[in-house]
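We now fix the convention by which a protein and its fold are recorded. The integers have meaning only within a learned vocabulary of local backbone shapes. The record below shows the convention in full.
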Amino acid sequence: MLSFLFKRLLPLLAGFVIWGFAVALMVRAELGLSPWDVFHQGLGNRLGITIGMAGVVTSVGVLLFWIPLRMKPGLGTVLNALVIGPSADLFLWLIPPVEDLALRIAFLVIALLATGLGSALYLPARLGAGPRDGLMVGLNKKFGFSIRLSRSIVEVAALIIGYFLGGTIGIGTVVTAIGLGPVVQHSLHLRRRLVERITGVPQSAL
């Protein structure tokens, strides 16, 4: 039980909180959000709720699509839906809006790095895919789409709908689309090397 708590559950939760921190920084940067956060922001504006709560609402809605795709949620799926959004709202409350462009660019860079760190903490826990990632996997299994194509379909749809709902698109959207994958992969590699150095036990790659 203690091994599960410290090796899987706590890193999972820390990863989700750091993801929420990254979302808040992206919002405060005002340089454009990731595709799903464009949707969350736009939905929040329309419903009169925070971007974090819109993320929770979206997660629940996406999970409904898991039913016909025959996907089963795990503990990580539920915590993903419930932790990231409120964490983003908390950090938005703590971090005031800024006007200085250099600081906003710094927020964008830090947000990208924080996303990589958060991913490196929660992905190895293997406690269930996030609602949006599970949707992509479900499309892959149900229709035979590649994961890359499934991700593109879902994220482009979220981006377009979010834009028309009033979400913010900008250079940050492009930076996230291009840079997130390599940053996450590098963060996972660094985490694996650190764990191997501390424990002396080889770690399998995701």
The chain has one domain: 2-199. The radius of gyration is 17 Å. The chain is about 80% helix and 0% strand.
